Every structure is written in C-alpha cells, then in structure tokens.
UniProtKB/TrEMBL annotation:
All copies of domain RNA polymerase sigma-70 region, residue ranges: 29-94
Record SUPFAM superfamilies: Sigma2 domain of RNA polymerase sigma factors, Sigma3 and sigma4 domains of RNA polymerase sigma factors
Organism: Streptomyces olindensis
Record key words, sorted: Sigma factor, Transcription, Transcription regulation
Protein name per the record: Sigma-70 family RNA polymerase sigma factor
Phylogenetic lineage: Bacteria, Bacillati, Actinomycetota, Actinomycetes, Kitasatosporales
NCBIfam families on file: sigma70-ECF
Family: Belongs to the sigma-70 factor family. ECF subfamily.
Gene3D superfamilies per the UniProt record, alphabetical: 1.10.1740.10, Winged helix-like DNA-binding domain superfamily/Winged helix DNA-binding domain
Keyword Transcription regulation: yes
Length: 193
C-alpha cells in the first residue's frame, strides 16, 4: 500500500481500541466528534432533541459495531459523519412521513425536497468544518463579517492575491455541496439521501 493510502494512525488505533471494548476509547471519540455529529444532525433535523437522539444513536452504533469502520475506506471522521447523515435523514423521512400521513398536509414531493435541502445543508456544513483553517478563516470573514478580499487580506496578514485564492478555493469547495458525489463530502453522502 502506498504511503499516502495508509489510513491515519489515530484512526486505526481508535478502531482497534473500540473493537477491544475500551470504554476510554469511546470517551475520546465522543470528545473529538460529538460536536460534529450533533451539528450535522441538527442541521438535517432542525431540532435539538432529535439531534441529541441521533448523537446517542451514532455513538451507540460505533460502540456496538466498531468493525463496521474500515480504515482503508477513509478517515474515521468521514465515516462518523456519513453514519450521522444517514441516521438523521432516516429520522427526518420517518418523522415527516408520519406527519404527512397524520395531517395530510403536504406531498411526497415536498417531503423529498425538504430532505434534499437538509442533506445539502449538512454537506455544506461538513465541507466547511473539514476545510483547512486558512480557507475557513477567509470564508468566515467574507461571509459572517462581510469583509471583501482586501479587508480579509489585512485581517489575516496575507497578500490580496492570497486572500482571493483562498476565497475562490473555499467557495469552489463549498459549491460541491450540491453534487451527489462531492469531493470533500463523505462517500455516499450525496446519492443515498
């Protein structure tokens, strides 16, 4: 296996520790990924309590099925995000389908539109969170603080050309949120919503 194909050591060791049933490993994993899991679930479901439930489900699944993660398939972070996305979309579909059957308001097409919209938003969040810090910092200044590339360059202490490059690359990555197989998005993160 080529050097670049070797999964990160932390991911392999964590998977092995979880497979041995080390409770401390689950605690470390939770500390590292709980905010990612909860944030993605909340983005899909729009409900704090439902996101809490998905967060519990994800970590229970990881604890009970540590061998379902294959380090050769990608980073543990991506696997956890994919699992979160799948469970949250399943919950959203079930909840919305039950509401549709109970109230009769809305259509199946509206339900699918809502699910797809939530999936794109979750992919966008994941892409931004996974972005290198220099790109994310530039985008955050431009979007949240409404800074142009000159102001962003001054804020970050970089050249204007570098600020434009970071903003352009960050926006290109973010634009892939609509793609069903977006680079930077977890495998299976798009097509199977």
């Amino acid at each position: 296996m080529a050097k670049k194909d070797v999964p990160p050591r932390w991911d392999r060791k964590m998977q092995q520790r979880l497979a041995r049933g080390e409770a401390a490993a689950l605690g470390e994993l939770y500390d590292r990924f709980a905010s990612l899991v909860h944030g993605l679930a909340h983005r899909v479901l729009g409900d704090e309590r439902a996101a809490d439930g998905i967060t519990r489900e994800v970590f229970v699944h990881v604890w009970e099925h540590p061998d379902s993660y294959d380090p050769k398939q990608g980073p543990l972070r991506t696997w956890v995000a994919t699992l979160t996305h799948r469970l949250a979309v399943q919950r959203l579909r079930a909840t919305e389908t039950a509401a549709l059957a109970r109230d009769g308001s809305g259509t199946a097409e509206e339900l699918e539109h809502k699910v797809r919209h939530a999936a794109v938003a979750a992919r966008a969040d994941y892409i931004v969170q996974s972005m290198p810090v220099p790109l994310r910092s530039a985008l955050e200044r431009a979007y949240f603080q409404r800074r142009d590339y000159r102001q962003t360059a001054a804020d970050l202490g970089i050249t204007e050309d570098e600020a434009r490059r970071r903003l352009r690359l960050g926006l290109q990555l973010l634009s892939t949120a609509h793609d069903t197989q977006a680079p930077g998005a977890p495998p299976g993160y798009g097509g199977a919503v």
